Amino acid sequence: MRMKLLLADDHLLVRKGLRLFLQSQPDIEIVGEASTGLEAVTLAKQLQPDVVLMDLIMPEMDGIEATKQLKQKYPGMKIIILTSFSDQDHVLPAIRAGAEGYQLKDIDPDELIYTIRAAYSGKRHLHPLATDQLMSHMTETKKDEKEPRFETLTKRERDVLREITLGKSNKEIASTLYITEKTVKTHVSSILSKLDVHDRTQAALLATKEHWFGEEA
Fold it and tell me: Where in this chain does the record put each Response regulatory domain (predicted)?
């Protein structure tokens, strides 16, 4: 079964180049193209793609707002940012909006395919520069604070955090751990508070950086 992919970029040549390359992959079906953020949201609602390849700077609505709206309504939809910007002012808002992937437009084609397949399978994959920006931001905010302790988490919170590091949504975590989505949300909120991070992506990056789950993460 092929994954359905929506392209969102305001440059026609970029979309044509991406389509030409991606549609040659046996497991990818291009279901639509959007030239604005608003059109991306509208088409995503209509076409229900598995993955959206999203530019950041677009007319009518930028990629961050489009990502935020789509993730709020369709948390299982995977969104990969494909942009030319690698600074904190773009990386952090995009990840906080819910993007599973963040890549630059000069990416090697094989690396782009890997990122798309990783997102589709529920794994997070970021460009090294984007990862550096996230880790730098976390380090800066922790300079005068006590380091977060894994021991402060309950057994169930650790289980939830482990699933978060695997890129799973609340619905998927609930199914895996045999608990309700409401309970998962409660645990996620507690985890973020105890680790003093802003979102689940930062929690996952922290857990990975500290090797809290060994090779599992």
Answer: 4-120
